[in-house]
Amino acid sequence: MTPIEKFERFYLQLQSKDISNIGDVYADDIELVDPIATHHGLDTVTQYFGKLLKGTRECEFKILSILPTSAQDANHSTYDYVVEWKMSFSAKKLKANKVIQVDGVTLLKTSDTHVIYHRDYYDMGQLVYEHVPLLGHIVRRLKEQLQ
Description:
Blueprint: H1 3-12, H2 22-25, E1 26-33, E2 38-40, H3 42-54, E3 56-68, E4 79-91, E5 100-110, E6 115-122, H4 124-127, H5 133-146
Parallel strand pairs: 1-6
Antiparallel strand pairs: 1-2, 3-4, 4-5, 5-6
């Protein structure tokens, strides 16, 4: 199985909250960057995923597209991909029926066997700001006024 196939399978099965196969997907020296922080190393990334999933009732990813951005040649063992996705989750700290949806894009670099670099881009408003009682109202009003 290719690294991108492992990545896709991992995220499609994330709703089970079982991350025991994370080492099959990410390299020991993985660098994972998101709008909140940068995480270096498989142990740190594993702890990050564990903490995130612990705070959810449910979490589901839909992979909308995976696009290669460069081809492999004899001297180039790194692949680059752009992954478009939609995440739906319910946080334990929010109302039980409140499902948050976040659209995002991930940039990936892989070796022959693992993902070695992962960078997420998503709207923090969709993820957090719009769901904080007073701040959420302000963010939604600003978005409406800007349209």
